[in-house]
Structures are given as structure tokens and as C-alpha cells.
Amino acid sequence: xxxxxxxxxxxxxxxxxxxxxxxxxxxxxxxxxxxxxxxxxxxxxxxxxxxxxxxxxxxxxxxxxxxxxxxxxxxxxxxxxxxxxxxxxxxxxxxxxxxxxxxxxxxxxxxxxxxxxxxxxxxxxxxxxxxxxxxxxxxxxxxxxxxxxxxxxxxxxxxxxxxxxxxxxxxxxxxxxxxxxxxxxxxxxxxxxxxxxxxxxxxxxxxxxxxxxxxxxxxxxxxxxxxxxxxxxxxxxxxxxxxxxxxxxxxxxxxxxxxxxxxxxxxxxxxxxxxxxxxxxxxxxxxxxxxxxxxxxxxxxxxxxxxxxxxxxxxxxxxxxxxxxxxxxxxxxxxxxxxxxxxxxxxxxxxxxxxxxxxxxxxxxxxxxxxxxxxxxxxxxxxxxxxxxxxxxxxxxxxxxxxxxxxxxxxxxxxxxxxxxxxxxxxxxxxxxxxxxxxxxxxxxxxxxxxxxxxxxxxxxxxxxxxxxxxxxxxxxxxxxxxxxxxxxxxxxxxxxxx
Length: 499
Ligand SMILES: Nc1ncnc2c1ncn2[C@@H]1O[C@H](COP(=O)(O)OP(=O)(O)OP(=O)(O)O)[C@@H](O)[C@H]1O
Ligand SMILES: [Mg+2]
Hints:
This protein is of the alpha/beta class. It has helices at about 40-50, 70-75, 95-100, 115-125, 140-155, 170-185, 200-205, 230-235, 290-300, 320-325, 335-340, 345-360, 370-380, 395-410, 425-440, 455-460, 485-490; strands at about 5-15, 15-25, 30-35, 55-60, 65, 80-85, 105, 110, 160-165, 190-195, 210-215, 215-220, 255-260, 270-275, 280-285, 305-310, 315, 330, 415-420, 445-450, 465-470, 470-475.
């Protein structure tokens, strides 16, 4: 008998269909990868299985018995736990309290702290995390927070663990730890549903792959059939070249010059480099190397401790983003939820936000037609999936990222700063974003992007700056950059002074 069988699942949001007639099965101890383009309905389906939302139609059976979840607690009782795309922990509580939140063991009516911590320690260990259960969560990396979430799932004795894009903000090392945990769960008979846009991971982990497209089943691949081309064809409905687009931009004047910049993240180390018009420059490095911090300082979100920044040869003091925008900079931030978007507003307003801001400064007026044109152009180029008037906060994760990207792109900035530009976006949109980056360089702009996806760095960058502990460990030309040479610099194996 199947562990889980969902059939004919349908869900609408204010009349718009997110899922229709979707089937899904799961066996004990199986790792099932669920893939599909942004907005295909993956998270929605998982929320239904985990009791976060109710389906409008369809049936869910566990061990052959029909179940009906009205709450997350219902689903947990049935052994299903979901680790959300955006993590869901309380940072002000300690690890043990997070794990047992709302289910604390009690003695004489009071929370039995000793027992709670002892049990939490056991679950943390199973999740592969060596930490004091009495310690708070502040300052923990995303990977570790995820392990706390896994410990929580183990504590409810989950037989089905759902992970929605668990690795999108993990380092390579954290990803490997997570894979180890998944394999050990599997060997204990726990079934895992794994959502990811990283097809390499899917190939490595999945026993079976199920594909959604536009809210419906698009097909399934058994372990032996899993390869990138097949997955892409099922997701996108056509073949897609996996090559990175080149560009014909010719390096011109120096648009961005950074001299001896020091950030509070690595106060004793400094960075100097230049980016020319017509160049796409990648910044590689391990998590914590200070890459995002560098971009945030350039854009005026954080204040640098020292150093000089010049845009088009003119010195500029990045006091705040507004000044940075006026100087011709734009930043697509890493965390779309908190930095990039106004979640209550719709897609057109968000897209127009940055450029209107700039145009107003120039004494211009908001031009409704221009906003419509912007939306049409960006919607076409990025294929943003949204219902008319839908608030950006209700879009699927990847579609939010596309809006964040489109918003800044619409400005045609002289220097575009990108922090993990394709995190969480599907293969098609990834390609779109890469093409747009190349297009900017071709039109004589400078592009500086940070990425933890080494393939993307090697595929897109004309030049790679490798950061290690807050300084440049080295700079590699396209011809010199390889996985090995970048990693060697990123891990500090071979250090030379910043150029
Ligand atoms: N609360 C909501 N209100 C309105 N529409 C919603 C809501 N949640 C999701 N949707 C819509 O349902 C569709 C499916 O979204 P879902 O989040 O399931 O996609 P996804 O496959 O997880 O995409 P991604 O890869 O980008 O995370 C999208 O069109 C989305 O805009
Ligand atoms: Mg999703």
C-alpha cells in the first residue's frame, strides 16, 4: 500500500487556478523530487499536503485511508511536516523551544525544560547539528536553521518530510550536510518530497521525479530516466539550450572603481577593483566572504568604514540607496522578501518603483502609459506569472525574484549590481536573466554579480573576482577561471595580494 496518494487536487485563488486535477504518490523511504517552472504550483501542492491550506477538490490518502487536514497540526498528527521555502522559526526563542513550540512537554502544568532540552538534543543530533538546545537561533546560518527545522520535523515523528527549495540559500558545504541528513532519513524509512530548481541536485538525490506545469501534472521520470534534458522538456514543454549567452560588449571606460574599501564585516581587510563599460564581472567566494556586504556598501545600504568609490570617474559617497540610484547604480538584492519589493503592491507598480523614483528626481511626472509599457516589456521578457492586480507578496517565490530583477533592469542603470540573481528562478527564467545581463553589457553598461552558483559564474563572467575573508584573493580572466582555480582562491589555499 502506498504511503501517500493524492488525487485530483485542485486549488483556486480568487478565481485563478493554481492547481487542477493533480495526482501525486509517495512510497516509504522514497526521495521524490517535485520540479516545475516558477508558479507551476509546487509550493501550493505542498501546502495542501501539509495542512497549511485546504484544497478545493481532490482526495488525500495515507496508508490507503482518506484524510482531511484542516490545520498544520492535523497534518503533523498524520506524520507530514513541511519545511517552508521561507523558513519559519522564532529567532528570539532557543532551539529546544522552537522544536517543541506549542507541544512542550509538561510536568505539573509547567513546561518541563530539562526533558524538553534533553529530547531536543537528540533530535538536533539526528538532524546532523551539534548545538546546545538551550542556545538561541540568532546568528545561525540558513543551513543550520534548516537543520533546526528538520529536528522539529523529527520530533513530531514525521514519516513524510517536505522540503521546499531547501538549498536555495545554502553553501556548498551546508548542502552536502543536508544531503547526508536526507539520506539517513531515507534509510530510516522517512519519505522526502524535495523541491528544487537545481537540476544537478535532483539528479543526485531523487529516486523519482514528478513534474508540474501550469498547475497540472506534466509527467514523471523514474530514477534511470532522470537527466537534465528530459526534466527541462517536461517543465518548459520544449527544449532549451543550456548554454550561457555570450555578449559582444567591448570593455570601455571604467564605470565603477573601488579603492581600498573596507566594510564592517571584515574591518581589517580591503578590496580594490574596477569594472568597465561592456563588462560582466562575477564575484565568487564562500558564504561569509563579504560579497553581499560589498554590494550593500556600494549601493548605500550599509556604510563602508573606509575607501573610495568612483562612478564614471566621479567620487561618490554612498550615503543611501537614493544617492546610489542617482549616481547610476542599481542593486538586485539577495533577499527579495525584505529588500527588493513592496509586497502589498502589484507587479506594475513594483516594476516602475525604481525608475519612477529616479525620474521624479529629475522633475518628471508619473506616466501611467509608461508604467503599462514597462510592465508589458518586463512581463514579456521575464514571463512573470501573475493575475491582474495580484499583490507581489502573493506571487510564487521565483516570480517575486523576477519582479525584483525587472524593477532595476527597467532603469537601464550604468552599473547593475546583482546579488544571487537567479536564486530560486526556473531554468527558463534563468536563461532570460542571463540574456538580459549580457544585453546590458552589450549596450555599454557594467554588470557586477555575486553568485554562489559556480557554473553561473564561469558561464557568465568575463572576469571573476574571488573574495576570501573580506578581500580579493585573486582575479581570474575568462580563460583562467575554472572550478578549481576559483575554489582554490575562495578557500584561501592560494593567497596573493589584492591587485
Ligand atoms: N495566497 C495566494 N494568493 C493568490 N495567488 C497565489 C497564492 N499563493 C500562490 N498563488 C498563485 O498560485 C500559483 C502557484 O504558485 P506556487 O507558489 O505554488 O508556485 P511554485 O511552483 O511554488 O513556484 P516557485 O518555483 O516560483 O516557488 C502562482 O500563480 C501564484 O501566484
Ligand atoms: Mg514555490
